[in-house]
């Protein structure tokens, strides 16, 4: 018999949704519940991710989860935004998010970033469930701290229950409009054909046992094959963020989804211009919460096995891109690995034309999503790149023949100081937003306005 944790990795769960719908609160609740279950030490805070082991999940889920039914080690949650990177680079079976939780405020229903998340999930084929959050705000609600949804439902007045049901059916309708057949999770038989909706409250913890149970069940049932990895193999991951870190220079926050990454490993990372080949100087994990006030914020670790989040310190990372692949060379030809990274990047390269707008985005994943939205809106792209708006972008945009195209569309990016000056002195218009739909809509309005 195999040692189970040797070959089955933790599924990676991306938590997505509109601003303020409760993504972070939901993760906080999972962490907090673990603390109240006396499992505080079991939860590990990774760079950009939170690992929740199976025992902790079954502690929170109570009778809903019997650990003996599962052999996956737990769940690794990635909070967004900032981490749009998950949508990118699914080639070669390497996908950052194996599964996703779409958080929707039960009162607000679908909002622009919900739609955006749905588009990305659709495009990448990522299975997901919906957490219909904030059920405690239903008028007349009688909260049942940390209880499964069935217990909670039974404690509500008919009136409160039917108010919640109305909101839930609204969301189910919106999912159906978006092309997904959906239902309350306990009515779903086949989670591959239907999206399960789990009513939850990040505030009271109601429904959180159900949410964890459904995620665990889904992963176990449909993703075991994908989770089978050679932990000793060369590590593979995706860059979540490129960050300056005092004392370490430019570092990468990475999620490793395959194999192992070790200090001293030679790695290849997708860069703005070409793949970067470098050597891992240090692997850093955040200190446990209790120690966060000490001088050093990080612990150095020798190695990290999938799935996990880690910060990589290494030379020459300045041009690394969020969303780009990271590959350990170990035991292979360096050139082969470089070619691998190149071809993965080529797959998400955006088709550009002779005439069109300039697009800048913060990650490869968001650039890809932008390009798709523009393609749909029939807006041609002259140039598309990851990074802040630079003087060069203004120069390029000003070469567009049509005034409609003398435009830069920036998603989640800053404008460099000298670019700001050039913008003011040119006819180039900058549109920037952190919601793709909004960006496209603003631009379309501008074009319509001009043609009037
Ligand atoms: P962004 O990271 O900005 O996209 O937001 P988010 O989705 O992470 O939302 P966050 O968790 O920060 O919650 C936003 C607000 O909603 C906070 O004030 C939370 O306290 C509140 N909130 C979240 N979940 C619940 C809930 O279940 N019930 C109630 N009553 N409030 C909630
Ligand atoms: Mg948040």
TrEMBL record:
Task of the protein: Function in general translation initiation by promoting the binding of the formylmethionine-tRNA to ribosomes. Seems to function along with eIF-2.
Family statement drawn from the similarity comment of this UniProt entry: Belongs to the TRAFAC class translation factor GTPase superfamily. Classic translation factor GTPase family. IF-2 subfamily.
Binding site for GTP: 17-24, 79-83, 133-136
GO MF annotation, one: GTP binding
Tr-type G domain segment(s): 8-223
Assigned GO CC terms: cytoplasm
Portion of the full-length sequence here: 6 to 457 of 600
Keywords for this protein: GTP-binding, Initiation factor, Nucleotide-binding, Protein biosynthesis
Protein name (database record): Probable translation initiation factor IF-2
